[in-house]
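On clarity, I found the account of how folds are encoded harder to follow than it need be. What matters is that the chain and its backbone geometry are given together, residue for residue. The format is easy to grasp once an entry is in front of the reader. For illustration, here is how one protein appears when written out as sequence plus structure tokens.
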Amino acid sequence: MRTCSWSPMAFALMAVQATACAAGGASQATQAPAPTTSPIISTSTSAASDYDIVIRNGRVLDGAGNPWIRADVGIRNGRFARVGIVTGRGRQEIDARDRYVSPGWIDMMDQSGAVLPRNPLAENKLRMGVTTAIGGEGGTPVAAAAIPAYFRGLEQSGISINFGSYFSETQARVPVLGMSARAPTPDELVRMRAIMDTAMRGGAMGMTTALIYPPSSYATTAELAEVAKAVAPYGGLYASHIRGEGKDVVEAVREAIEVGERAGIPVEVFHLKVAHRPAWGVLMSVVRDTVEAARARGVDVAAAMYVYTAGGTGLGATIPSWAHEGGTDSLKRRLADPAIRARLKREIDTGSPGWWNIIEAAGGWDGVVLVNARNPANAKYERKSVAQIARETGKSPADAAWDIVAAGSGRVMGIYHMMGEADIETALRFPWMSIGSDAGAALAAGDADGLGLPHPRSYGNHVRVIARYVKERHVISLEEAVRKMTSWPATRMRLANRGSVKEGNWADVTIFDLETLKDNATYDEPTLSPTGIDWVLVNGVVVIDHGRHTGAKPGQVLRGAGARPNGGGA
């Protein structure tokens, strides 16, 4: 199977690379076979049916945090038509006895934008109960002016999952400044705001940044606030992979809040974490106090998280930001210069302006694991830490890592073990926390996600919230876990008529067996699907039936409030 590669500048160049990748990979979309008929789902072709689907005897969780109730759920024309005692019949009847009936789960930080045009099934997402995904830090996989056509293309070809997306500030910066690290002039800022305005009128949900990655890392707070002002008239959000997630996480959260305050828009912090061992158990509570103080003075700020102690990103993140200026070719030329490489090594110890030291966050090179070398010659080192690779090759860890980066034919990927379990549990209890995987749909079931990052969050994240933190560790209640994945993110993203089991709402549904619910994906086997998800419905259509994709594509494109017909003017 062809795998699309992503450069170390992937977030900056997403539009160009994703478009080319989509053209080359269009034939890779697969149609899942229809499931065999289950003994507890019945189908009728009777014209006298009152509903399209009736879900019987389930423990219905409304998504708002209320205790479950025993009820039937009738669905008609894609929406919940009745909740309670349903006396009429459905063309399809699902017996949910001993199972929970929940609103479909929402992924608040998704990476599927470039994959859906090539394979619309999003099977790994749906099999973990996710019915709606919001494209995250990389923005859209096309330029601002192409967003309306991109969304229309998804609608015409069909998608199995509901999907909306942010637009990246970097996507406004690169067409004006290229890969330069310099600040924009006032005239250039006007052009950048115009690009962002076009994206918002095309249906983007807001502006996003990924501030540890060049060239996004070159943007100052002032620049971000000025460009974000273009989002305000359209009711969009500012969402950010913040500038630092380690010992400087509090300052980075404050910067995100400042951008939102100056621009007059809500703020969303992506995949909140404290990635610095000495700060485990200390800084997460400071982050909470910082966010809640901002909320108390009227700033609409919240966050999302994934529930693993390891992150995942390009191995190029171990290289100080200034070396990336000019793009991939410029980076590789610098890595080939012994004097520059010596300077980069020194900066691992001394620090470098504008660079978050992710090596330090991982506790050293032992905590950095190569998972996708993007080069057959180096594939033998995958699943090994950089420290181990260095020992086997007789190189320093930095040389071992950077030689692999230089030899990669795309974005070389790593897993970084850098978070503490106690901080995950603390953050999960924050009432304003939602759940985002930071992972994309896979091109085919059983493959790594479209980013080429084999991390268990791609297949297990949302199930793990319940399996580990409700059932096993009793950190939050089942009702609260479901609220964080349904009504709260729907409210947060202004998704009308979604996120709760309520008459008139769109019938996105996840039906699960709490007893058997389990995330099976691990760091060693990251593409194992979970168990316990029996059915998933999207807009009133069964998409997952006993763990198998039906091939249905009832998903909807979710446009931001600023969307104009054909992306045109007001």
Summary: Residues 313-417 form one domain. The longest strand covers residues 51-60. The chain is about 30% helix and 20% strand. The mean pLDDT is 92.
